[in-house]
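Q: Predict the bound structure with zinc ion.
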Amino acid sequence: MAQLIDVCPFCGVNHTHISHHLLTFFVVCQHCNSSGPRHRNADGAIKDWNSLSQVHKKAQFLTEQTERMQTLLGRLYQIESDVWQIVHDSSN
Ligand SMILES: [Zn+2]
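A: Predicted complex:
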């Protein structure tokens, strides 16, 4: 069964190929030379590489969402500070 190989989880470039050494197969990125887990057959090597890529995409998504939440939290703190300043100014 032919499978598509996902982009490299380490550099994001879609320039990979399947390599083999002794009795193992693994995906290699020709851009950054990263290699995936070794497997007894090419399909297994691609499947493991793609799993690695999916985990990386999820981690990247969570990192982006965390940064976005931190930005929003910073704005919220600023609004809270502004409101307290208005309340303070109006009571004097
Ligand atoms: Zn790469």
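A: Residues 42-91 form the longest helix (50 residues).
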